[in-house]
Specification:
The structure is a homodimer.
Chain A lengths: L16 H14 L13 E5 L2 E4 L4 E4 L12 H11 L11 H11 L8 E5 L2 H16 L3 E5 L8 H4 L15 E4 L9 H21 L4 E7 L16 H9 L3 E5 L23 E4 L10 E5 L1 H10 L10 H16 L2 H22 L3 E6 L4 E5 L9 H13 L2 E2 L1 E3 L5 E4 L10 H13 L5
Parallel strand pairs in A: 3-13, 5-6, 5-7, 7-8, 8-9
Antiparallel strand pairs in A: 1-2, 2-3, 4-10, 9-10, 11-12, 12-15, 14-15
Helix pairs in contact in A: 2-9, 4-8, 6-7, 10-12, 11-12
Chain lengths: ~450, ~450
C-alpha cells in the first residue's frame, strides 16, 4: 500500500555506506510494516528545539513534527520526567496525586461541564475507547466519519480511517461522508452541505440495520486535505447527529494543545462534543493520550464496563504532560502559533503567487497546507509535490505531503517554531517551487 | 461491574482526611471507569526496589506488580531514559539506530526463524495488531480464546477478553473454550481435552459462518486461574489450530521477560507461535509493547496495509526497554525468579497444610496462585480471599485476588524480589490465613 512521501527501497544506493547498512539491518528486523520518509531518509541522531541533526552533524529545520510541540529535547520535560523516575512510576489502582492534579488542570481547559478524563497511551487507544464508550452508552454500533479520515490503527480506529487505503476494511456499521471542502465552498454553504451528507449517512446506516452511535471528526480535518477550523462549519452536522441520538466525538489528536492557535479546534467550529480525544503532543513524545468527556457518559460506561490501562496516567507520563502545559503557557506558544502561523500563511500565499502550480494555500495556526496542481489542467500533481518535499529535504528543511491525491504539502512544525525560523523554511520552499521537476 | 479486590467507595470514611480529600477529587475528575485496590486504598508516593511507600512514609512490600520488573525507581532505567531525553525522541520514519539495535537483540531471544518486530505502546495495542495481522493474512475473522481470558481493552482485544464481565460483548466471530484445568487434570489429559475443545470451537465458528484466523492463549493463563506453563500442555491445541489454517498467537504480556523463570512461557508448552505479543514489564513502566513474529506474516500485512504507531519504538521507550534487558541479564533475574519462585511455592504449600481453606497452590516462577475455598464445602470463597488480601495490606504486604470466582490469591512481585524478601511475605500470609474472617 503506497504512502505519500515514503522511501522507495530501490533508492538505497543513494545512501552512504553506514546508512545503507543500517537500512539493511532495519529492513531485516522491522520488515514491511515500517515505512521511512523521503527519497533519501534522514538518519536522525539528535534534536534540539526546532532542529534535528543527522549522523554527519548537519542540522535540519523541523517544519513537520507535531509531537515535540515544546521542542526536541525540551529541558523541562527531561527534568520533570527524570525527577519522577527517581520517585515513583506506577498505575492508577493506588491513590496517587499527580494524575488527579493534572486531570483537574486539563479538564479545566474544556467547556464541558464537570468534564472527566481517562488517560491512555496513544491517540489510537483514545479513539478506540471513545468508540467503546459511545457504543456502550447508546447501545448502538453505527459510526459516521469523513471520507478520507485518519483516526488511528487499532482495529476499531482503523475501521473509521479510510485514508489507510483500499486494503483496510471499512465495515458496514461505518458510513463515510465527504468532509467540507473549504477550498471550493464558503463556510456557511459547506456547513449546510456537510450536515445534509450526515443526514444521508444516518439513512444509509439505518438501511443496513445500524443506528448511529457517534459522529467523529478530526477538528482540523487534516487527512481530508486540512480543512482547518472555519467558524461554525461543523455546527449543523453535530446538531443532526445529536438529534439522531449519536454522540459527537471531537478528534483533537492533530488539532489540540495549541496547534491552531487555540487550545482546541472544535469550539470555533460551533461544536459541543460529548467526547474529545487527545494524543500526539500531549507528553512531547512520552506516550500519553486521553479521552475527555461528559460525566454522565463516563458514569454509565464506568459502572457497567470499567476501564483500566496499565500505563495510562502513570506518574512519569503525567510529569511529561504537566511540563508540556507549563511550557505552552509560560512561553505563550498558543499566541505564537497564531501569529507565526498567520505570517507563514501570508508568505506562502505570496510564494504561490510568484510560482505556478500552487492552487491553494490554507492553514490554521501552525498547520498549513499547499495544494500542488498542474497549472495547465488543474489536476492534482503528486509527483511535483513529492519533488518539492524532497528538494526541501536536500536543503535540510523537513515537511511532508499528504491528502487524498498525495499532492498537498503539509507544514506543521513544533510550536516553538519562531518568526526567526520562518525565512529558512520560506527560502527552501521558494527554491523548491522554482526548481524544474526532474524527469 | 464488580472487580475482585476493588475499593468500595462506601468505605471512604476509613481513610484519613488527606486521602479522603484526594479520593473525592479523584472521583470527581476521573470518575467511574477507574477502580482502586483494597478496602483502604494505598496512597503511593514513592517506590524503591520491591518497596512502595505511602504518604506517611510507611513501606509496603510489593508482591503484586509485574510492570516494575527490575524494581521500582530502577536507577539504570532512570539514567538511560534521562540521557536519551537529552538527545533525541522521535518516530520511526527517520532512520534511528536504537530501535534497530534493540529489535535485533529482542528477536534474538525467540526461536522464530528470522523473527521480525513491530513496536507499539501497550499490550492492548500489541494484541489488537496481532489480531489485525492474523485476520489480514488469513482473510478470515474467527478467533478462539480461553473462557476467562484477559487480552486487553481495545474494542478488538476486549472482544476476546471474557474476564471483563457480562457487559463486555463477545461477538459471534469469537469462540471461547475452557482453558486446561491443571488443578484437576494431569498435563497430558488436559492437553488432549483442550485440543478437543479447540476442534469443537472451530466447528462452532464454522456453523456461524466464520473460519478461524487465530487461536490466542496467555502463556500462563493467568485470568483462567493461573494454569502456568506445564510441559507441552498447549501443543496439541496449537496443532489443531494450525491444521485448520489459523495462526497461533502467544500472549506473553503476563508470562514474558522472565516471569516464569524463562524468557517466555510458550516454548515449555510445546508451541511454535506465528505471532507473540509482549507488554507490561518491557520498559519497567515506560510505555512500550510489541509484536514479534514470522517474517512472511509481517511481509503480507506490511505490504498490503502497513502500520505506524507514532510513539511506538521511540528512542526513549527503547532506552528503557534496553535497560530492562540489561538488568534482567546482569542481575540474573530469570534464574532468581525460578529459585525464589520455587521457594515461595514450597513455603506457601506448607502454609496451606497448616491452615484450612487453601485448596490448591500452584505457580510458575514468580507468579503464584492460592485457591481459597470453604473447607467444609470446597466452594470458592471470594469473601475470605478478599479478607486475606486486605489483612495483608494492613500488614503492608501487597498482593491481590482474581480468578473466575475471585477466590484466587495472586502473588506476582517484581523480579528483583529476593529470597531475603520472602519471610515478610510469608509471615503476612501466615497471619492472614490464621485470622478469623471478620463478619
Amino acid at each position: 500500500m503506497h504512502m505519500a512521501n515514503s522511501f522507495d527501497p530501490r533508492g538505497a544506493s543513494a545512501l552512504d555506506v553506514a546508512d545503507r547498512e543500517l537500512l539493511a539491518r532495519r529492513t531485516r528486523v522491522l520488515g514491511a510494516p515500517y515505512r521511512l520518509f523521503y527519497e533519501r531518509p534522514v538518519h536522525a541522531v539528535r534534536g534540539n528545539g526546532v532542529l534535528l541533526y543527522d549522523a554527519a552533524g548537519l542540522d535540519y529545520l523541523d517544519a513537520y513534527n507535531n509531537v515535540p510541540v515544546v521542542g526536541h529535547s525540551n529541558p523541562q520535560v527531561r527534568e520533570r520526567v527524570s525527577a519522577q523516575l527517581d520517585v515513583l512510576n506506577t498505575h492508577t489502582r493506588y491513590l496517587t496525586d499527580a494524575v488527579v492534579d493534572y486531570a483537574e488542570r486539563l479538564t479545566g481547559l474544556f467547556d464541558i461541564a464537570d468534564a472527566q478524563a481517562v488517560f491512555v497511551c496513544t491517540g489510537s487507544e483514545a479513539v478506540d475507547l471513545a468508540l467503546r464508550m459511545a457504543r456502550h452508552v447508546t447501545g448502538r454500533r453505527g459510526v459516521i466519519a469523513t471520507a478520507h479520515a485518519y483516526h488511528g490503527t487499532t482495529e476499531a480506529a482503523a475501521a473509521i480511517s479510510p485514508s489507510l487505503g483500499p486494503n483496510n476494511p471499512i465495515p458496514g456499521e461505518v458510513e463515510l461522508v465527504a468532509a467540507p471542502d473549504l477550498a471550493r465552498e464558503d463556510p456557511a454553504s459547506a456547513a449546510a452541505a456537510f450536515a445534509a451528507r450526515v443526514t444521508e449517512a444516518i439513512t444509509a446506516l439505518r438501511a443496513r440495520g445500524h443506528e448511529p452511535a457517534a459522529l467523529i471528526v478530526d477538528s482540523v480535518m487534516s487527512s481530508d486535505g486540512l480543512q482547518g477550523t472555519a467558524a461554525r462549519v461543523l455546527e449543523p452536522a453535530a446538531a443532526v447527529a445529536g438529534a439522531a441520538g449519536a454522540l459527537y466525538i471531537a478528534d483533537e489528536v492533530q488539532a489540540g494543545f495549541g496547534r491552531t492557535g487555540a487550545w482546541w479546534g472544535y469550539p470555533h467550529q460551533g461544536v459541543r462534543p460529548d467526547l474529545v480525544v487527545l494524543g500526539k503532543p500531549m507528553g512531547n513524545g512520552i506516550p500519553i493520550a486521553g479521552v475527555i468527556g461528559r460525566p454522565d457518559v463516563f458514569e454509565v460506561f464506568g459502572r457497567d464496563v470499567r476501564y483500566f490501562n496499565t500505563f495510562g496516567g502513570n506518574p512519569v507520563s503525567i510529569a511529561a504532560a504537566g511540563a508540556v502545559l507549563d511550557e505552552l503557557e509560560n512561553r505563550r506558544l498558543l499566541a505564537s502559533a497564531s501569529t507565526v502561523g498567520d505570517l507563514l500563511l501570508r508568505e506562502c500565499t505570496a510564494l504561490a503567487g510568484t510560482h505556478g502550480g500552487v492552487s491553494a494555500v490554507r492553514g490554521s495556526g501552525l498547520f498549513l497546507a499547499l495544494e500542488i496542481t498542474d497549472p495547465a489542467t488543474g489536476a492534482a500533481d503528486a509527483a511535483r509535490a513529492a519533488a518539492i518535499v524532497n528538494h526541501m529535504r536536500e536543503n535540510r528543511v523537513l515537511i511532508s505531503a499528504s491528502g487524498v491525491s498525495a499532492n498537498v504539502l503539509k507544514v506543521r512544525p513544533p510550536l516553538v517554531f519562531a518568526e526567526s525560523d520562518a525565512p529558512r523554511l520560506l527560502d527552501a520552499l521558494d527554491a523548491a517551487l522554482a526548481a524544474p521537476l526532474a524527469g
